[in-house]
Amino acid sequence: MLNRRLLKNLDFVAIFVTLLLLAISLVFIGSATHINTPSEDRYWYVQRQGLFTLFNIILVYFTLNFDYKILSRFANALYVINLVMLLAVMFVGHSALGAQRWIQIGPVSLQPSEFSKIIMIIALANMLDHRWGQLRTLREVLPVFVYVGIPFLLVLKQPDLGTSLVFMAILFGMIYVAGINTKILMGIFAAGIAFMPIFWHFLKDYQKMRLLVFLDPNVDPLGSGYHIIQSKIAIGSGMVLGKGLFGGTQSQLNFLPENHTDFIFAVIGEEMGFVGAFLILFLYFILLYRGLKIAGVARDNFGTLLAAGIISMLTFHILVNVGMTAGIMPVTGIPLPFMSYGVSALTTNMLSIGIMLNIYMRRQKILF
What we know:
The chain is mostly helical. It has helices at residues 4-8, 12-33, 44-63, 75-92, 112-129, 138-156, 161-177, 182-194, 196-200, 205-215, 226-238, 249-252, 264-297, 301-326, 343-361, and strands spanning 94-96, 99-105, 108-110. The protein has one domain (4-361). A hairpin with a 2-residue loop joins strand 2 and strand 3.
């Protein structure tokens, strides 16, 4: 059982916002899927997501019972397990939507690349903790990039460009906090921009098309551009107050693909309008702000790095997903945290919240 003095140190604002996002998520997953489900039960998706939401709430409570510093002891082992999982996908994983990313365990499809995000945050936090303030030269920075580069390439091989980019967001966020030389950081960004034309030739055809339709969805309006076009129609038609819950034509009539996963924000925009979309973004702002505060008050560098990695991951997810549905970012298949349907993503995000709460709860030494 948790010490009462520790419980009093919990970040109740972050807890409330997370629970509110989860509740809103179940409502809109139900709205998006109650007409088209794989079974006779109209709310099959809601029941399934709700069940795993309860499981993950229990999981978060479990993570609060041990000191987050223990994670550093298992960081190297977790890194190896991560590589094994990503390699296993290549041999025993099954394909969906043109990518081999999932492993079937009974009735549940798990996506190891989702769990690899939180594992990489833990492993990288441990590595940078021992290199805090020692990222002044390219020679000191290079091992960090190699460390992240191995799982990055394994995920890119699946192919999963979206999750690979999440790895980069986590990496840059954490090395910035760890005190990397800003000249080296700017040089890395410049080199990345310079190599983009070369990187283009390594992209799959469908990935190239996604970038082209981002610039002009009408290049392939019935193919790769269809998602963006329908999403923009859905959000635009919601105007200020929306069409009402369960009243969105794009989502209810199945014009909007992946409306309960990658494009759930478009459902919110259509049915609740600008007001509903703004409310969701405001809740995310509060959650990210609390995360930054947690990073600032952590009792050690390891805790600061963990919180920084989690905030980098969540921020990238939110910006890319919302931007994607609004047509100002390319389609990458990155889910919206706590809102999109999916067991693996939900578990990763809830574990992240559990770790942040753990860091904040133990922000100062407490006598037991």
